[in-house]
User: Which sequence fits this backbone?
């Protein structure tokens, strides 16, 4: 909208604040996705083959937590940089068609649509569990699945069983909506506090500076990010150091460099 | 009872089967304890100081999962071997008095009583969360806590808030009973299946062999353990190798050794 | 230099390429720092208290690998965002003065100077090991240490022992130069290949496009980063997916969004 | 030999002491095997497919460290219990024939012979690296490999390149001898100290008690294990708790139990 010059007022992209996306997306979604899967299914994650589709901030949060619970984690990506990062982080990186045959649990976090499609559902093992923690309810092609299913019923709160012709059963959590909201309680307070602080302090900043701003999208000012992080550390009882004067001068100068 | 010769019939110690204590206690308790804490409190585990009291099979399961969820894990032990193992596994090992001052979350899994006592509750930070996943409800000295508390109320299902004189709040989960049973669903089916298989096959073994057995405590026969493990692998779709004849002969002989 | 308009020609900041700093700095420095410490000292990392000073790309690489080898890892930072990230990653975050008293091994990776100073050396335990993997040889104040030391001798290749008055011994690796170069072989070929590819393809890009470029600092074009990552995945035998046409259209449009 | 009654004097099985096999085998071999591979090859472990053959104490040490360095770890086992444990620990468990096709690095730690045989070498990828950290030099069938190889040469200290007909290259480390001894410095002092303490204290015990002992194999007395562990904790600066009198009584009684 900024590029098309249709913004009616200045915007602060709070979701891009470091204290938002680094924390809310990674640590919040990482934990609450696991939580949503546990509450809805009570499966044992240790020993399962757990497929994470999308290795952005949310995806790496979930991959890290699934490994931390004892799963063998497979990652599906379309971006070569992220795929390489996943491989270097020790995850097994495979195309979605291969993952579909092997996985016990699937979670999509891509921000895109139809990431798991009818042909993938058909390739899955009997009993596969499928959830979305990314984007609305478009990441799973549930229409395609429903069109092929012989029957569908609710077997447990937030768990729908689709039976394919031949008898294979696929379990979809939370109707493909964000599983951490549908089946758990969303992000913990300990991560939302930072997001809300970003919103509050950014609103105050716009109220203060708004008349000088243009009708475009602004990043959250770095000082706000630092302030939120420093407040959070204080509530956690964590103390850190400050640069000495000599170090601050050194960082500021390039003449002393290299 | 065996030593005192008061056993009335032969016993099989199913809890000591490898497929029971290695799996049920470690992977089952590890996951379901985290699950119970999440369901009852919805706290963010990442960044928390998480104290595990007792580093037996259950304790190392919980320590491993808490780390896997992003906590800094502290371990309390009385046994020097287990304490050393915890340290070598990268955990910070401290006495309970030090842990009490630093921890955000505490879980006891010792099989003993009064592991967290009144003086430890008094040393805790405001807002500390305390749970037991070990032994009945005797690991936490809740009588001692109640005796010192100015007030007590339920703030959320399975969460009781004790307010100490001065205003410090301590949150006790599930009344000190096993938190994975009190606040979650106990072990997942994927781990109980092995425990039940051990019980079933051991019962069959006693029915078959019982007349030849003495009135003492027997280990689960190793063949049953192997059979349960092999069946479990098959249900997980995991194939393994067999020894070649040459390897089997080698293992059986000591003359070719060293 | 760009800001002061003293650049004589266009520059490509190859070190900022994703395939450089994400990989070379994190995975390369992470491993080779551990390698340098092992080759020079042969200490057991499991069970040690390992202090990482600086939680940038290099620092988190080393912290991750030290934990992976079984250490209890402490992180020292001056930036609240990075400090918070370290805490959420499960590391214990402390001021340098506290770390100095507790650590067994110290590695600096800050890009700054005098990160470990004379008062910190004096607070260390007898036998502490100190290395730098960040910036030249200025991160450790070795002049300050030498001024206080009663004696200094080489006890093993790349290991110098400073004895403080009172008899406490401090071991400095590689004279405070980058320990992965001083005591190991630097980054593995498997990570340098990407850095060199970035340099080669960026040089070709400048040769091709240079006449159209201004005298300023350019980022490595994203297409080069993607190409290097894709080539690397191919050499690793890893295949990934492509966006479907529908997905590519979806990503490109905001009208279909939210 | 005990069973055949050919022992000439009492033996203490020091290798079975908890402070020996839990630590020396797991933490010692875990680290020094990685060390040997790094010194001999300088490969990047992150992103590699690292195959561990044998999931005993040594094998799980190496698997844990390889994962900690960023590898995707595959485990090969013949024992269903150990295979299941590896799977529950999040490792991918496969037959050796499948591992042979996929692995970048292979380490045997089975205590058996001919674990990797000619047909496995032939199935490997060009450039595969193979080492043994288990048992003498019999775990790898190097005779079988040599018989099939078109040529063989030393390409780096401790690294021999076998070229198979067709041009595929296999790199064998340390001639199949224990790679941590052949290419690194063996276990660190920080783990050998416990093994030596076990030997010294067991020798003292035999000297003291020997006349009362029979000609059989004895376990290291538990008190020695505890003493070694307690001494080690003290040298690491780690303090632990003691049982209260009430706890000690509780542990000792079964009447208060269940």
Assistant:
């Amino acid at each position: 909208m900024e590029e098309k010059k249709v913004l009616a007022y200045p915007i602060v992209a709070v979701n891009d604040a470091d204290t938002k996306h680094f924390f809310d997306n990674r640590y919040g979604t990482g934990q609450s996705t696991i939580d949503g899967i546990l509450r809805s299914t009570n499966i044992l994650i240790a020993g399962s083959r757990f497929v994470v589709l999308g290795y952005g901030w949310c995806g790496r949060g979930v991959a890290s937590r699934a490994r931390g619970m004892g799963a063998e984690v497979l990652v599906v990506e379309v971006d070569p940089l992220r795929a390489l990062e996943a491989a270097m982080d020790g995850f097994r990186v495979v195309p979605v068609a291969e993952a579909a045959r092997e996985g016990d649990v699937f979670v999509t976090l891509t921000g895109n649509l139809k990431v798991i499609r009818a042909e993938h559902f058909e390739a899955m093992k009997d009993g596969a569990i499928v959830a979305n923690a990314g984007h609305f309810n478009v990441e799973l092609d549930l229409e395609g699945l429903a069109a092929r299913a012989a029957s569908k019923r609710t077997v447990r709160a937030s768990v729908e069983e689709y039976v394919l012709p031949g008898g294979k059963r696929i379990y979809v959590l939370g109707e493909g909506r964000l599983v951490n909201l549908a089946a758990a309680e969303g992000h913990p307070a300990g991560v939302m506090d930072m997001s809300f602080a970003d919103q509050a302090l950014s609103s105050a900043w716009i109220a203060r500076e708004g008349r000088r701003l243009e009708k475009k999208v602004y990043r959250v000012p770095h000082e706000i990010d630092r302030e939120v992080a420093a407040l959070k550390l204080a509530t956690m009882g964590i103390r850190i150091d400050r640069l000495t004067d000599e170090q601050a001068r050194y960082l500021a100068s390039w003449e002393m460099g290299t």
Notes: Chain C touches chain B at residues 46-47, 67, 70-73, 84, 87-92 (CB under 8 Å).
